[in-house]
Amino acid sequence: MQFVSYVRQGRPGFGVRTSGGIIDLASHLGVGTLRDALAADLLELVAPIVEGRAAEFALSDVTLLPVIPDPGKVLCVGVNYETHRTETKRPEVDHPTIFTRFADTLIAHGAPLIKPTLSDRFDFEGELAIIIGRGGRNIPESAAMDHIAGYAPFMDGSVRDYQRHTSQFTPGKNFPGTGGFGPAMVTPDEIGDVSALPIETRLNGEVVQSSTLSHLIFSIPQVIAYVSAWTPLAPGDVIATGTPGGVGERRDPPLFMKDGDVVEVVLGKAGTLRHPVVAEAQ
Question: What pTM was estimated for this model as a whole?
Answer without folding.
Answer: 0.97
